[in-house]
Automatic annotation (TrEMBL):
Cofactor binding, per record: Binds 1 copper ion per subunit. Binds 1 zinc ion per subunit.
Assigned GO CC terms: extracellular space; Golgi apparatus
Name of the protein in question: Superoxide dismutase [Cu-Zn]
UniProt signal peptide: 1-18
Entry-linked CDD domains: Cu-Zn_Superoxide_Dismutase
Gene label: SOD3
SUPFAM superfamilies assigned: Cu,Zn superoxide dismutase-like
UniProt xrefs under Gene3D superfamilies: Superoxide dismutase, copper/zinc binding domain
GO molecular function, one term: superoxide dismutase activity
Pfam families: Sod_Cu (PF00080)
PROSITE patterns: SOD_CU_ZN_1 (PS00087), SOD_CU_ZN_2 (PS00332)
Annotated source species: Pteropus vampyrus
Listed EC numbers: 1.15.1.1
Subcellular location(s) of the protein: Golgi apparatus, trans-Golgi network; Secreted, Extracellular space
Cofactor(s) for this UniProt protein: Cu cation; Zn(2+)
Amino acid sequence: MLSLLCACLLLVACASEGSFDMEDQIRDIHAKVMEIWQEMTGGRAVRGSSADPTLHAACEVRPSASLDASEPQVTGRVLFRQLAPGARLEAFFALEGFPAEPNVSSRAIHVHQFGDMSQGCESTGPHYNPLAVQHPQHPGDFGNFVVRDGSLWKHRAGLAASLSGPHSIVGRAVVVHAGEDDMGRGGNAASLENGNAGRRLACCVVGLCGPAPWERQAQEHAERKKQRWARACQAA
Ligand SMILES: [Cu+2]
Ligand SMILES: [Zn+2]
């Protein structure tokens, strides 16, 4: 029934005229689906057991089992925080093991449909795409991330994915790619499905957790920022 509702909402959005672009329309549809979901469940599905509505999730990234040993062995974690059901998602990305190239490079990270790592990252399926839209409008299209000295450190806010509701990414996979995401501008069919982001280097399954991993990561992130500033000041 919900998928039918999503399809109807999408049709209405596509048929409507106005100044909204596609991204705004998809955001509105996600918000509407979330609202209906909360009404249907009386809020129980997203409130959890405590009074604090904040949701946290963790994803321990491991190299894809289908890769050769000679390929980069990327490890680390992706942590998520959502302050309330329906709110935009925040994430910390902390990964290492990329080749330490002299120049910075850019790597794509997405949410894929299945939390199945039985065939390495190959069994995680295509991009998670609950509204049957084109890339890069999938809720888990996190875009490109800069890799410096073999590491990737980033905090991002305002992400469209959710840890609750009918389009939750919990139990699905985060996949780290070898290449850059062309953000749908590659001029071929794959570009509108996956951004031609290349091989799947590493992945993990998103699972709910308590607030402690997020707090530790936030502290570590602040410390690293301070150190970077101190180094920049010394160099100046
Ligand atoms: Cu991907
Ligand atoms: Zn996508």
